[in-house]
Amino acid sequence: METKEALRSRRSVKVYDPTREVTDKQLAELFELTTLAPSAWNFQHYQFIAVRSPEQKKKLREAALNQEKVEQASVTLVVCGDLHAYKRADRVAQDFADKGFYGPNGQEKVEKQAKMMAETYQNNPQLARDEAIRSASLAAMSLMIAARDMGLATCPMIGFDADTVRKVVQLPEHLFPVMLVSLGYQGAEPLPRNDRLPLSEVVHIDSFGQPFQSNP
C-alpha cells in the first residue's frame, strides 16, 4: 500500500474481531517500523507495553473508562513517555561519532556531546516531559500508519486514568502513559469519516492570519 493510501484509508477503528490475533512476527515487524520514527537526538523517548493476556486487558479496560475495544482488540498498547531517555546519551553520542556526524575527529567529541545532551534534560524536567510526549506521539502515529499498511486496525485513546494504567502495567516512575492504542483486525465497517477542517482554516503562510489558498 502506498503511503498516501495508508494515510487516507486509516481509520480509528472501534470494533475488532476478537477471534483474530496479531502474531509475534507481526508485532516484531510493526515495532521495527515504529522505531524508525524521529526523536530528538535519536533518544527514542518512549516505551511500549503490549497488553495481550485476557486478565490484563480486563484490568486495562477498567482503567480506560470501560472502553470495549481495549478487551476486544488482539493487543492494546500502552504508549509511554520515557523521562530517562537521556541516560542513553553515551550510547547515542558514540553512535553519532561512528556514523561520522561529528567529523573526522568525532571520537574526541563523544564525551562532551554526551554530557551536553544528558544535561539538557536533567536540568529541565519540563522539557524532558514535553520531549517524551512528542517522541511517543510521533512513534504512535508511525505505528498506526505501519499497521494500516500491514492490514491491521488501530485506534488511539486518551480516555483513561493514568494512575490506574500505571498500576496495571507496573510502570516505574520514569515512565508515564501518553496514550493507549488498540491493535487488531477490524470487526465491522466503520462509519463515514468525519469531515476535516478546510486547509484555509489550519494552514497559514509566513504568519498566522495569512491562510493558505490552494489552487483547484
Give the tally of structural domains: 1
CATH architecture: 3-Layer(aba) Sandwich
Number of helices: 9
- Roughly what percent helix? 40-55%
Low-confidence stretches: none
Shape, per Cα inertia axes = globular
Number of β-strand runs? 4
Tell me the fraction of residues in β-strands, as a range: 5-15%
Which fold name corresponds to the CATH topology?
A: NADH Oxidase
CATH superfamily: NADH Oxidase
What is the CATH level 1 assignment? Alpha Beta
End-to-end CA span: 26 Å
Overall pLDDT level: 95
What would you report as the Rg, rounded to the nearest angstrom?
20 Å
Strand adjacency order, main sheet: 1-2-4-3
Helix/strand-derived category reads alpha+beta
State the order of secondary-structure elements, H for helix, E for strand: HHEHHEHHHEHEH
SSE blueprint:
Elements (H helix, E strand, L loop, with lengths): L2 H7 L14 H11 L11 E6 L2 H10 L4 H5 L2 E8 L6 H10 L11 H13 L2 H25 L3 E5 L4 H7 L6 E10 L14 H4 L14
Antiparallel strand pairs: 1-2, 2-4, 3-4
